[in-house]
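Researcher: Next entry: Asparaginase (Malikia spinosa).
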Amino acid sequence: MNLNFEPQDDQIRPDRLVVLGTGGTIAGRAAQRDDHVGYRAGEVAVADLLDGIPVPPGWRVQAEQLAQIDSKDIGPGVWRLLLARVRDWLGQPDVGGLVITHGTDTLEETAYLLQRVLAPTKPVVLTCAMRPATALVPDGSQNLADALVVAAEPGARGVVAVCAGRIHSGLALRKVHHYRLDAFDSGDAGPLGLVEQGACALFQPWPVAEAADCSRRPVWLDRLLGPQPWPRVECLLSHGGADGWLVRALLAQDALQGHDRPDRLQGLVVAGTGNGTLHADLLAALLEAQAASLRVWRTTRCASGRVLLAGPSSDPIPPVALPPAQARLALLLELLTA
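Model: Predicted structure:
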């Protein structure tokens, strides 16, 4: 799979930006203009969201409505469609970049998946809103305008997210607030840059493909777009009193339904306390899951930072330096090539 679309001198110079709509708060509608909570997500068409939004000079914009959902409800169906359409649009020589309007709840998951699987050399910019389109002072219009600026930026590449004037890498993005307009950060890595007065100010390089993924991406894309269910990976939380009952219940239910099902449970990600530490009783159950051939990873439930090892570790539950939701997708991808 070749996603290197850098134009040669004799090729068409890109002059088109494509905006893919998936719903979310940015397309939300409320009965009252001051209602920022009781709205319905995914009500306004992406073409209507673009009405009145300035287009970067020298570019034209085309919109496509892929879905109209609340992003909390996203799953393989919409992700399959996004992966296929992003791949197809990036293959058009006159398309210089994509913008995806998306809900905030799972934006970090979609951005991570698109970057790991596609790693495009053209920009794919996810944007969103924390207030519905019908709000007295909506934030989605400015976020969408900023996303177009980033998509048209010379040299831009990879999957990023733009919200509240900040540009975040799709590999580091996290939602950290439930209501604030500036709801995202990039952990200790920090944002890639800012959008100020219609111009990008970069602090860090654009996301690039991970070398270890290069040979696996064609396999991932083929499997993810195929008809078979995606590997089932569940997320758990370590907490006071965690006794492993839920892990054993999952194992028992899976055994009851049969281990040869294509949608069988294959992996667990556990968000541990602090530096990925696990309640002793939960750890015992997770070791039983490993003995039953499940892949088990651990991360931290802390909002910032990542699991660190003091040195060589005999811990049988391997750590991963990702937030839980992204760690789940990373394990899913590992299982596709296991």
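Model: Note for the record: The longest helix spans residues 76-90.
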